[in-house]
C-alpha cells in the first residue's frame, strides 16, 4: 500500500498561499506572492531534493498543475525538471479538461475513491502545494505523511494550511526537526491512529 505525502511551505501563522511567485495565487487580493523566495537557502534546497528522491508520482490540484505544466516541460536541465517531466501526474479538477503535460491523468469525479486507488499503483505519491485540494485530503484523512517547512514570517491574511476542512487528527513526528540558516524549520509527521485525547492538568497540581 503506497503512501500519500503532503508537502507544504507555510509562514509561522499558517499562511501557505502563493509561496513561489507573485502571480501564483492572487485570490482575495493576496499581495505577498513569492514570500518564500527571500528565505531559501542551501539547507532548504538540500532537504527538498532529498525528499523527492523516493517520489514515484505527483498528485496535484488544478491550479498547481497549471503552474507546473506551464513551467517544467520547458526546462531542459536540472534534476527536478527531469523528475517532474517523467513522473505520472494525477490532477484533481472539478472540470473536464485536456492535460497536455506528458504522463498526466485527470482523476475521476469521486476524488476520494480515486486517491485511494492510487495507493495500489505507487509507493510514494507526493502532493506539492495544491492548498485547496489539500483541504479535501485533510477532511478525508487521505494522507500518510505531512511535511511542513515553517518560515519565520507572519502575513496575517491568506489561505491557511489548516482551514475549515480539517478533522481532529493525531500526528507523530517521524524525525528531528531541521532548521535552516535563515530560520525555516522542517517538520515531518506521520498520520497516527485515533483522535486527540484530553486530560485535566489541574489534577497534577492537587497531587503535589
Question: How is the topology of this model organized?
Answer:
Layout: E1 3-11, H1 42-52, E2 57-61, H2 62-71, H3 79-86, E3 89-92, E4 104-106, H4 111-118, E5 124-128, H5 131-139, E6 145-151, E7 170-173, E8 178-179, E9 185-192, H6 201-207
Parallel strand pairs: 1-5, 1-6, 2-3, 2-5, 3-4
Antiparallel strand pairs: 6-9, 7-9, 8-9
What's the gist of this structure?
InterPro entries: DHFR-like_dom_sf, RibDG_C. It contains 6 helices and 9 strands, in the order βαβααββαβαββββα.
CATH topology: Dihydrofolate Reductase, subunit A
Q: What is the CATH superfamily label?
A: Dihydrofolate Reductase, subunit A
Radius of gyration: 18 Å
Could you describe the largest sheet, including whether it forms a barrel? 9 strands, mixed
Gap between N and C termini, in Å? 48 Å
Overall structural domain count:
1
Number of strands: 9
Named at the architecture level, the CATH assignment is 3-Layer(aba) Sandwich
Q: Please report the number of helical segments.
A: 6
* N to C succession of SSEs: EHEHHEEHEHEEEEH
Amino acid at each position: 500500500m503506497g503512501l500519500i505525502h503532503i508537502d507544504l511551505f507555510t509562514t509561522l501563522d499558517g499562511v501557505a498561499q502563493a509561496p513561489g511567485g507573485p502571480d501564483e495565487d492572487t485570490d482575495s487580493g493576496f499581495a505577498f506572492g513569492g514570500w518564500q523566495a527571500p528565505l531559501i537557502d542551501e539547507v532548504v534546497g538540500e532537504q527538498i531534493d532529498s525528499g523527492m528522491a523516493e517520489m514515484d508520482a505527483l498528485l496535484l490540484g488544478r491550479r498547481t498543475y497549471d503552474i507546473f505544466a506551464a513551467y517544467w516541460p520547458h526546462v531542459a536541465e536540472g534534476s527536478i525538471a527531469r523528475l517532474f517531466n517523467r513522473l505520472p501526474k494525477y490532477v484533481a479538477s472539478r472540470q473536464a479538461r485536456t492535460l497536455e503535460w506528458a504522463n498526466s491523468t485527470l482523476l475521476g469525479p469521486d476524488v476520494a475513491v480515486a486517491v485511494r486507488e492510487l495507493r495500489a499503483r505507487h509507493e510514494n505519491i507526493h502532493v506539492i502545494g495544491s492548498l485547496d485540494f489539500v483541504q479535501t485530503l485533510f477532511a478525508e484523512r487521505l494522507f500518510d505523511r505531512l511535511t511542513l517547512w515553517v518560515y519565520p514570517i507572519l502575513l496575517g491574511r491568506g489561505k491557511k494550511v489548516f482551514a475549515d476542512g480539517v478533522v481532529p487528527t493525531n500526528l507523530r513526528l517521524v524525525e528531528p526537526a531541521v532548521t535552516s540558516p535563515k530560520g525555516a524549520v522542517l517538520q515531518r509527521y506521520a498520520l497516527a491512529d485515533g483522535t486527540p485525547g484530553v486530560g485535566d492538568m489541574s489534577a497534577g497540581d492537587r497531587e503535589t
